[in-house]
Design a protein that fits this description.
Layout (H helix, E strand, L loop, with lengths): L2 H28 L8 H12 L6 H4 L1 H10 L15 H5 L8 H26 L10 H4 L1 H10 L3 H16 L3 H15 L6 H6 L3 H18 L5 H16 L14 H9 L16 H19 L5 H15 L12 H9 L5 H16 L10 H4 L1 H16 L6 H18 L16 E8 L2 E8 L2 E8 L11
């Protein structure tokens, strides 16, 4: 290849990262005066840590966290620190040198820059030189906007895991593992990406990722009470795994688990219109789906590494019990592969890209009153992409392997799945998120919080009532 051709190729490879950079800067300017949103969780968790008030209440009392934020003078917010790992409080501490809005702006700018650099390196590493990649910024416009609007971490996560992939293929297992561990310490659920390295038999990356992950959490002991870290991993993390923090039935999760719960698990308050009330179908079908996804990934081993990596990220999103719009940015490596693929027929490429683009652009919030299959439209579109790729790559169903995976997964899912019906007291607070209740004679007092606003509601009881320590 001549110097002129190399220069032309590098020039083309720069177009897409520069397009993302330009678009990201426009979105940052557009969202400059918006509320603190999700970034408030990270920023104020660190701010409370630096002031020595990072107690267990930050995980056990949502009102405590919002009261602390209100004391800093923040307006128009409602935050919830419960899903955030303790390591984040240390990681975001340097941003506390600035006030909240400049800190969010700086974080977004740094995240966007690292993302664009990693995207350039990924495209260059795989020698991709296609102008079709210019479609990517439009395909992922909504996830990009939501990340910057919320001040979320997925730009950073994608940058780190992309660089981890590049470093692993260059034989730099320690650096690859360090980046994986950093991502896991910040968000936990991307630990699924270690499956890629297991499948590729890069055991050093997996082992060192776990070692560094433990190291990151051990470093937190210098700043955070060990009991708080222990509480997060023994109490909060299991609840996150069962989607008990956000609300398992909530359609905004766009997870297979929530979809199946809405179909097969009756709940008098959250899901009174279940298709069938056969709760055990939920863990069984979910376990079968997860097993099929892993078998499919194993079937892709002989193909392009970028394809396997992209499909692993797609499987991560499909198998997760909580999937947000901004996490869809993790599908970008799959989009890169599809737009440059020479292994697939054009119909498969176009249909997969179209489904990805629609899934990324859907405004799920507008589907609140829609039928369940429309309400979970994003999930079903992404499942369709997975099916299309499996079909066109002729993935053979290894039944023995499927059974070997299914049995332990379904055993665990059934063991951790509760089918005991919940008896609700059908009085609902209307002023915000309920954080405490009390009894005053024959009156029930509901204490709610909504960011900087607190409220109480008094409801007359018709009959005798008492408090129960088990409530």
């Amino acid at each position: 290849m001549s110097v002129k051709e190399i220069f032309r190729e590098l020039k083309n490879q720069r177009y897409v990262p520069l397009a993302f950079l330009f678009l990201g800067l426009l979105l940052i300017l557009k969202n400059l005066n918006t509320p603190i949103n999700d970034f408030g969780n990270y920023y104020y968790g660190s701010q409370i840590l630096t002031e020595g008030r990072f107690t267990a209440l930050i995980y056990t009392d949502i009102n405590y966290f919002n009261q602390q934020i209100s004391n800093f003078g923040e307006k128009n917010f409602f935050e919830n620190y419960i899903p955030v790992p303790p390591f984040s409080a240390v990681f975001y501490a340097p941003f506390c040198l600035l006030k909240s809005n400049p800190a969010k702006l700086l974080f977004n700018l740094l995240s966007l820059l690292l993302f664009c650099v990693s995207l350039f390196r990924l495209i260059k590493h795989y020698g991709i030189n296609s102008n079709y990649l210019l479609a990517l910024p439009l395909m992922f416009l909504s996830p990009l906007n939501n990340n910057l609007l919320q001040g979320q971490t997925y730009l950073l996560i994608l940058a780190f895991i992309s660089e981890s992939l590049i470093q692993s293929e260059k034989g730099r297992h320690q650096l690859s593992a360090l980046l994986c561990a950093l991502v896991m310490a910040l968000k936990i659920f991307p630990a699924f990406i270690l499956l890629f390295y297991l499948l590729k038999k890069k055991y050093k990356v997996v082992i060192w990722s776990l070692v560094y992950f433990i190291g990151f959490n051990a470093a937190c002991l210098l700043f955070i009470d060990p009991e708080i870290i222990g509480y997060y991993y023994t109490s909060i993390l299991p609840r996150l795994a069962n989607n008990d923090i956000i609300g398992a039935y909530y359609y905004g999760n766009q997870s297979m688990y929530s979809f199946l719960l809405n179909l097969f698990s009756f709940d008098s308050l959250q899901n009174p219109n279940a298709l069938l009330n056969i709760p055990y179908l939920v863990p069984v079908i979910e376990s079968l789906f997860v097993s099929l996804a892993i078998v499919t990934l194993i079937g892709l081993l002989k193909h392009n590494n970028l394809l396997l990596y992209g499909c692993t990220l797609l499987a991560l999103i499909l198998c997760s019990r909580y999937t947000t719009s901004y996490s869809l940015l993790l599908l970008l490596p799959l989009g890169v592969y599809l737009l440059n693929s020479k292994q697939l027929p054009s119909t498969a490429i176009l249909s997969s890209l179209a489904l990805l683009a629609i899934a990324c652009s859907l405004n799920i919030a507008g589907f609140k009153d829609a039928a369940i299959f429309i309400k979970f439209g994003r999930l079903l579109l992404l499942v369709a992409v997975f099916v299309i790729l499996s079909y066109h790559f002729h993935i053979k169903l290894n039944r023995k392997l499927l059974l070997l995976l299914f049995l332990p997964i379904v055993a665990y899912r059934c063991y951790s799945f509760s089918i005991v019906p919940i008896n609700y007291f059908h009085i609902q607070n209307t002023k915000g998120i309920l954080y405490n209740i009390s009894l005053a004679n024959d009156t029930l007092v509901l204490h709610s919080t909504l960011g900087e606003k607190g409220a109480t509601e008094k409801i007359a009881m018709h009959g005798k009532a008492h408090t129960d320590s088990l409530l």
